[in-house]
Design goal:
alpha/beta, Rossmann fold, seven-stranded parallel beta sheet, 6 helices, 41% helix, globular
Length: 220
């Protein structure tokens, strides 16, 4: 790992991943609406806006052709019962959770292939199961899972590893903004999730952990 692009690196799991990368002396470029306060290069990017994505892609291709790690971490959820979600909210959730990631991969995959790098895509346990008020979020994460598996299939002969990482609920502003019923003290600590990702990346290149599912253990 020499230079990484990460989406949503300014808070939550993204922030912890950036901390771990910086400890490894990896140069980090963060794409997010809110800049990271860590020692990274920030490119202001709203994944809900194609013009932002295009500008970010052009900047990366111009100034950061040596990237060998792409981490698609951004995610958001709006809890709504069926029929309550507005059209804009549907578009926003799919843009942030899946289509923004797809657009970045499709545009940057040739750089990753050239540099024999890795792609880590953060899904969710909601990729495999859903709950009330999670219909749009779970649908987006399930679509993301399908894209991860397609990448793994099409790139299996390339020296590129595709890691699908699917955590359950962890401490972040994500659940607060979503007005989740889960208490922060009951959620997982993202620093351990970040360490797990780094461990997977540091394995020999002939080892690809294709799917990591981390369930939140509920105490009785």
């Amino acid at each position: 790992m020499k230079k990484a692009i990460i989406t949503g690196g300014s808070s939550g799991l993204g922030h912890e991943i950036v901390l771990k990368l910086l400890e490894k002396s990896v140069k980090v470029i963060n794409l997010s609406r809110t800049p990271s306060k860590l020692d990274v290069i920030n490119i202001k990017t709203n994944l809900n806006k194609d013009e932002d994505i295009i500008k970010a892609i052009n900047t990366i291709k111009k100034n950061h052709q040596d990237i060998d790690l792409l981490i698609l971490n951004s995610g958001m959820m709006r809890r709504r019962f069926i029929s309550e979600t507005t059209l804009n909210e549907v578009n926003e959730q799919f843009a942030v959770n899946v289509t923004g990631a797809i657009k970045l991969v499709e545009s940057l995959i040739n750089l990753i292939k050239k540099n024999k790098g890795d792609i880590v895509i953060i899904g969710s346990t909601s990729s495999f199961k859903t709950a009330p008020e999670h219909s749009i979020y779970s649908s987006a994460k399930h679509a993301l899972l399908s894209y991860i598996e397609s990448l793994q299939l099409e790139l299996k002969k390339e020296d590129v590893r595709i890691i699908g990482f699917h955590p359950g609920g962890f401490k972040s502003k994500f659940h607060i903004k979503a007005k989740s019923d889960l208490k922060q003290e009951d959620l997982m600590d993202p620093q351990y999730l970040a360490q797990l990702i780094i461990t997977a990346l540091e394995l020999p290149r002939n080892m690809q952990i294709s799917k990591i599912i981390v369930d939140r253990k509920k105490h009785t």
